[in-house]
Amino acid sequence: LLRQYIPNKTDLDTAILFIHGGGFVIDSVDVNDDMVSYFAGHLGASIFSLDYSLSPERKYPVAVTQAEIAFRWVRENKADKISVCGDSAGAYIGACLTHTLADKGAVKPHSQLLIYPTCGPNCGFESMDLFAEGFYLLKKDFQWFWGHFINDGDSSQERYLNLLDGSYRKNLPKTIIVTAGFDPIVDEGKQYADMIKQRGEDIIDLNYPTLFHGFAFMTKLKNPCIAVNHFLDAVSYTHLTLPTKRIV
């Protein structure tokens, strides 16, 4: 199921496939409706929000496969250029989709926006312990989500299960990674950004040190709104035919 958002004024010639978060287990296009509407209006872009099948009934890689089907459908029926966007677990699915398309030699996304991405079922990062409780996303929640998403004992379809193992093709699309300072998964998001950067890929790494996991939902609050507008402006910039620069 895809829900399309069409702004009154379209400024970008690229459609966006949005993949929601929720730990692979909860949330939906309805839960994310206000946030995606805000994104569409600010960017002036048509957005297709994917309502993928949730775990534990549908485990990895079902959501990635559905995202690939959605990407191909949008490209064949709606737009030649497509960007991928996701938050949290949705950012992980989006990153897996990008790697999958690259491995198959298929048309890759024009760009990808990964908002506070989780990168794999590793809970050993320092930030996971520092912000284990009291910061919106709990460490125990993170462990519970991944436990429902992965297939125990079956690694045959798990090539990208840990995005930080580096086993992916180069030549990724333009990438923006957004992280928040008070987020249990900030360290893995930063590590993923550093890994892409070290491979010479085109990446903008944006960290908002005073914010927390889930802030993109909260544009009615001043500081989250400023941050969301900032990274959406970075998205607009990546669609211009100008030299790449780091946005700080």
- Helical amount: 25-40%
Order of helices and strands: EEHEHEHEHHEHEH
Structural class: alpha/beta
Low-confidence stretches: 241-248
- Structure annotation, total helices: 7
Strands ordered across the widest β-sheet: 1-3-2-4-5-6-7
Record field, number of beta strands: 7
Shape descriptor: globular
% residues in beta strands: 15-25%
Mean pLDDT: 91
Task: Describe the sheet with the most strands.
Answer: 7 strands, mixed
Distance between the termini: 36 Å
Radius of gyration (CA) equals 17 Å
Assembly state of the chains shown: single chain
What does this structure look like?
The structure is a single chain. This protein is α/β, with parallel strands linked by helices and 248 residues long. The chain contains seven helices and seven strands; from the N terminus they run ββαβαβαβααβαβα. The protein has helices spanning 33-43, 62-77, 89-103, 126-130, 139-149, 186-198, 222-238; strands at residues 2-5, 15-19, 47-50, 82-87, 111-115, 174-182, 203-212. A seven-stranded mixed β-sheet has the order 1-3-2-4-5-6-7, sandwiched between helices. α2 crosses α3. The radius of gyration is 17 Å and the shape is globular.
Task: Describe the structure concisely.
The protein has 248 residues and is an alpha/beta fold.
Q: What key attributes describe this structure?
A:
248 residues; alpha/beta; seven-stranded mixed sheet; 7 helices; 17% strand; globular; disordered C terminus
Outline the secondary-structure elements.
Blueprint: E1 2-5, E2 15-19, H1 33-43, E3 47-50, H2 62-77, E4 82-87, H3 89-103, E5 111-115, H4 126-130, H5 139-149, E6 174-182, H6 186-198, E7 203-212, H7 222-238
Parallel strand pairs: 2-3, 2-4, 4-5, 5-6, 6-7
Antiparallel strand pairs: 1-3
